[in-house]
Amino acid sequence: MHPIVPMAVIAVVFSATLWCGMLWLYSGRTMRFIRLVPLGLPLSAIVNMLVKGPIGQGVGELSGIDPGLGLQTPVWFLIFLFLLAPVFEELIKAAPALIPSVRRLIETPGDALWTGMALGMGFGIGEAIYLAWQVSASGAYGEYPWYAFTGFFGERLLVVFMHGMMTGLLVLIAKRGHPVLGYLAAAGAHALLNSGAVLYQLGLAPGWAANSVLGVMLLVAVLLFERIRPKRVAAEHSDDVIYFSSAE
Amino acid sequence: MAAPVLASFKPARSYGWAWLIGLTTLVAVSALPLVMPGLLPPEERGAVWIGLGIMVPLLAFLLAILASLPAMRYDLTNDELMLSCGPLYRYRIPCAEITDVRRTTLTPTLWSSMRMPGLAIGGVLYADTGTVKMCATRMSRDILLVSAGKRRYGLTPSDEAAFMTALSPLLPRTATSGAAEV
Q: Which of A236, B61, B127, B149 has the fewest beta carbons closer than 10 A?
């Protein structure tokens, strides 16, 4: 067994527990939206194997470019490869929201946010499984012990939330009548999120800079989440039991 | 000399300790690559020391909280309510300053704090009330929220009725008191 597998299991179980727990708590202690998470699980494998892979390879073959050349690759092709993930992943992540039974769930902007977050989180968890499978199948890093993959754990834990936020934003803005704007916002955020990793892979930025991009994006996402998520309405305070109050 | 304790109350039971053990294990596993020889190249020795400088105090802090959990309690003296969880967390609330006591459900935010299912300790930022000093075995539901001036405290006594019976005579007399559903 490849040593990434135990860490992938920990990452998937921990991410699913943490973020589904968060979704349950913030959406009003309901399972309505958690039930949508499995819809996103296969989408990463689908978009990577059936869309991004063939398109990247096809365009590379047509133009006679080997995508593994690093900085020797023409700039237009690097940009093209860079845009593949945001453009297609943001489309496919939100696609299940078009299913009639899912659409019926989205009655309010809050419902839209939770629906998008559930689909995005499902995608993120599926992506962790897909990436672990890819590493395992390639045999790379097989000489390391399982606990050497804590970087994978930490990154995937955060990325699951980020995927949830981006799709949540898309479905929320779409619910407000601006689906194209929502898609552009999600794809733009996705491109920014990936920028650090891409620059690192090209040797144009150190590892800490790539991690800093993720950290800054996470901070922005948390700020945004706290701003746009539905707040507890006054009626929900009706369960309060007041023992003592000096208020007039 | 400290005033004598009139009554002492334990918090409600919870599985917060299990979550804390899980979190501590996770941090310990994350620190493993830093201490295992040969995993990191020699040129990253600086990063190892920075990592250890963060991880070791964090682990010590988590272990200290874990060890303190059985000592969590709420003490009442003639004029103070004292919330404590070992030596790390102690809050003294003068009864004369208490303006509101209610059982409520709080909405946590995503900002980092020492709270998890079944446990909330220290300053925790909640969406609907702001920062609450917590010494509780629940994170958000059925928290006994005590307001004193601009400060708020959260606790979860195992026997809430007995706790309120003991606390009520110590509260300022000019206010509305007695349980009331709102």
A: B149
